[in-house]
């Protein structure tokens, strides 16, 4: 399908959605998304480091590990098929674009 502005334009065409955005607007949105992604990434990495430290400090028995594993919940937010992941992601991004002050015209 492609990446970047061309890829989004093709996706919009497939979804029968009009796509009209200047290159400067595209770059502004790209920067906003990049900054938001970086914040979430840093937060998740900090959580992962903390969890790794806790696990390194403890010496779990096999039973203790099994109990931990059974109660561990993945934070995944998508349960659909792999091929539809990108399309669902774009729908969710556009669905919350107003809260992030991103406008598509």
TrEMBL record:
Protein name: Uncharacterized protein
Annotated source species: Pocillopora damicornis (Cauliflower coral)
